[in-house]
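README: folding subset

This subset contains proteins for which both the sequence and a predicted structure token string are available. Records are stored as plain text. Below is the entry for AI-2E family transporter (429 residues), shown exactly as it appears on disk.
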Amino acid sequence: MIRTEKSPAQKRRAYLLFGTFAAAFITVLVYLFVSLRPLLLPAVIGGLAAFISKPILDFLTKKHGMHRELGIFLILGLFIGIIAVVIYVVQSALPDERDKLLLRTRIQYKINERFVSFMGIDSTGEGNILYNFAGKDLAKALVSVNAKLTLSPHERDLFLSYAKGSGHNPPFDEKFMGYFQVNIANDQKRLAAPVSGDPEARSVPSEEEGQDAGESKIQLLAHVIETWILMPFVFLFLLADNGQIKRYLVGFVPNKYFEVTLIVMDKANDAIGNYLRGITLECSLVGLTFVFFLWIIGFEIKWAIIVGAIAGITTAIPIVGTIIGFIAGSGYAFLAEESCSFIPFFTANNLIIGVVLTVIIAHLLDNAVFQPIVLGGAVSLHPLVVITAIFGASLLFGPIGMLFAVPTIAILKVFFSTLFKELKAYSII
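--- output ---
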């Protein structure tokens, strides 16, 4: 069959046709991407886990001759086991109903106590200069905070039952009962004289509100299962892929660009994989550093794990990760009643100093040891790009977007830098 040169009219129609289909495809893709945002995080985590696990599968199959199906089965079992361990550790570290009631009582008491102390409010209701300047506005905000923290009548009954002690749980300390009584007295004062115009001035939740919250737990669990069930499937199918996706994409490339396309895909794949494995290891090391030093200075181990997990995960967000780790640690130091520190200097009153030192040590280790060794400085982004990506992604996708903004930008930078480098090497551009 003799190929004839297309006329200008045919070329225009072809460009118009392909442009229309491309615009429609991109529009549908963007619509689905925005509409299915709840599925984004499970899909991304499943994809990243598969990407990170690829070298393990290659090691088992190519180096040790293991059947690919058996290797996938072992890695999938390891993946599920890691998820189960993480869920178990998180559940054991998170406070139960008893601890939540006690924690809310302590937070409410401490916030009100610190507000009165910081504003210098005396028995006559007069305060210092700061109170005279902004105290009234801050008091309105404090009413809203108290409305969220105040225990409902049902929760108060539960608190009193837990306070007596049951099973392996000892009774509450007398000072916590004092906090409970002070909170009730403050709630009654706010009910007697609510802040004018504040819809949240009613501080005590009703019995019906507590029941509705309890009934929604089943719906919440069903929603979580419905959303996160996607993650293992994405992990399994991407890990089981033996080049089918790659061959499908390469099929759209003209023959003269076939070789350079394969080189770009292989090099970008290696670079992106190294980055993802590096950032995962870096976050884990930072989290473990927080856990160790917070435990040393006197944090309860479960709270050290919680703060360490928060700090480690948010390390993927440069600049913001250190701040969030400090805020999480300071929250515990703010509420600490006692300290079981291995260093005699640290007590409940100066635990914030230990938090500051922990943040400084973790930050220095991250910059001086973890990043250079693990990442090797392979991906460097301008601070302006980092800040713009973080805020832009947070506006579009919320906290999930903030968490994955910088890794996504880094991956795109690796891909396009590799692409243009190879295109220049082959004299295509």
